Amino acid sequence: MSASPTDQALSIPVVDLEDLRSGDPTRAARAAAALKHAFGHFGLVYVKSHGVDPGNVDALYDLFLRLTDRPEAEKTPYGRADLWFQRGWTPPNTEKAVVAGGQPDFKECWFAAPIPTDAESAAMYPQIYAENIWPAPMPGFDAATAADFQARYVRMGEQLQRAGEALLRGCALGLALPEGTFVDVVQGGPHVTRLLHYLPLDAGQIASGVLWGEEHTDFNLITLLPGGRFFDAARASCARPDDRSGLYLRTRPTEAEPLGALVRGVAPPGCIVAQVGQQLEIMTGGALLATPHVVTAPGVPGFSRASAAHFTHAQSNATLFPLPPFRTPESMRDYSPPVLAGTYSIKTLVDIGLAPKSALDRLGYRQYDRLGTIRAAELGGGG
Length: 383
What we know:
By secondary structure, this protein is of the alpha+beta class. Helix content is 33%, strand content 17%.
C-alpha cells in the first residue's frame, strides 16, 4: 500500500436496491445515475436494502473460525490443488497478487458455489464449475455444525448473488444499455462465495511489512462484500485494533488524486460494499475501472479477521470485449483480443498462483501427439 488512506466515506454514493426494484422510473433512474457515478469514479458503491441477513453472516463467521481452528492435518484433505483451490480449503501462503512481487497472502480460505452449476459447463471447465466440497464432521465440528455451516454458507451466497444481479441491472440502466445487458451475461456463470480468515501476525512479520492481502483487482464482473470482523488473541470479536488495519479500496485516478485515493472498505450501517471487477471493466471499455483493494494487518500482534466475498462471473463462454457503445480505437487497443471468460479465468488463476502453469496448455491445440504417433509409425515401418 503505497499511499496514505483518505476518508472519503461520506462522498461514496449509497444505492438503495428498493429504488431499482420499485417500478418507479424516477426512483430507478436516480439510483442508476448514482450507481454509474459510484462505479465510474470510485469503483465501488454502498448498497442498502440488499437482502443479506447480517445475523446469518455473523453466525457463519463463528462457524468458519471453528473450522479453521482445527489442526492443519484435518483441513489438508480439503485443500484441492487439483481443482485449483476453487472449492474447499485454500492453505495460507498459497495465493498471491499479480503485482505483489511474489509475496503470498497470509490468509486461509474456503470456496463454495452457492448456485448449482450445470453439467455442460462442468465438462468444459471442470475446475471452475466443480461440485462443492463441504467439511465432514470432525472433533469440535460435529455433524450438526457441519450441516449448519453449509446451509448458512449457501444462504449468504444466494443473497449476495441476488443483490449483485440487481446492481448489474441498475448499472446497465445507468449506462443507457438494455436492462439485461450484464445480468444476462452472468446466467450460468461460475459464481463463487469465499470465506477468508486473515491470520494473526507476530512482531517479526509486522516489522517486515507482511500484508494480509496484497493490493489487487478481482477478475470477475462484480464483487460483493458483506463486511468483516476482527478477533483478538482470545478469539473474541473486537473493534479494529488500530487505524491501519482492514480493507482499503483505491478510487479511480483523477487530476487531484493521480494515484487514486485509498478509502476504508467499511460501509455505513445496514449497507454492504460492491466493487467493479475486471470483466466489467473490459465490457465497458474502461468506462468503469476494476477496483484495486488491499487488506492490511494491524500493527500489533495477535489479531485476526474473518470476512467474505461473493464473486459474480460472466458465463465462461461469454466473450470479454468492449460492448459496441464503448468501442473506440483506444478501448479496442487496450482490451484486445476478445477472449472467452473461461479462458480469461484460467489465465488469471495461473497468474495468482492457484492454478499450475500447465493449465495454460489447455488453451491451445492438444492433439499434436496424434500426428507425432503417425509419423513415428511411418518412420519405424520404413526402417
